[in-house]
Request: fold
Amino acid sequence: MKIERPWARLGIGILVTVIVVIVGFSWVAAIIPTWGSTSQEVALELPGDKLVPTPDILWNHAITIRAPAKAIYPWLIQMGDSRAAFYSITFIENLFCMTSGECRYVNADRIHEEWQNPVKGKQGIIMDFLVIHDYQPDQYVLATATDKMPLKWTWLWYIQPVNELTSRLIVRHRIDVPEEFPRQAFTWIMNMGYVMERAMMLGIRDRSEGHLPSSWEEPLGAAIWLLVFALGVVAAVDFVRYPSGYHALGVGLEAIIILFILTFIQPPMWVRGVLLLMVVSGIVVVYWRRSGRRLFLTRRST
Reply:
């Protein structure tokens, strides 16, 4: 039975949307701590583990890179806001430096020899809050928080060779949060920060494999995300305004799920294009069904 009243349809739409969003964020929160890692990788004892022996937050992320360690390490060792940046989403990175009127982050597209031997304990990764604590060529880079940060934090990039041409990049965070910090709020902020780390790992993978990102990829990715969001809003409005079944609501929910995929999984650009076309097709069907219904009612009335 169709519910004709717009306020009733609005209530249904909000309720279903809230449920889907809660399920989505619960899924993200559950898998982020070990995203991409095997149980063996999570159990590995790695450099820096003893610096924060009992962390409140422990992340262990991993990605396969079709390149040897010697092709990956030079990109890792030159990371930092004042050097090669983080190979992530530039316009989001630069939001953090707008208050100073200076854009620190420019993602490097080549290996800089002058950045390959940083001073341990001095070279900043994130200004002077997080610095390079230790490194071993072709093996790992370890950063730690300084006294300027009110928490203990180690951030490790570790290269584990699989064979001569393939490696696993393991990224591990160990964070000890002070008791006075709102633990859940801090965890939520870190989960949102995973979006940037995911982009960083993909950026390192692409550069190590010899695929430098094109200048158009980042704006295109942002445009696809915004278009999916806008089409989801269009579907939601259509569902509330025009009582013609629940297809529009389904398209809106489809848009939400795709936004989670675009945000947290960050698939290749061609996959993002396919996902956008799925939402566009759904919107076309919504309008086609509504036009067909109007034509049927017009003919019936005559």
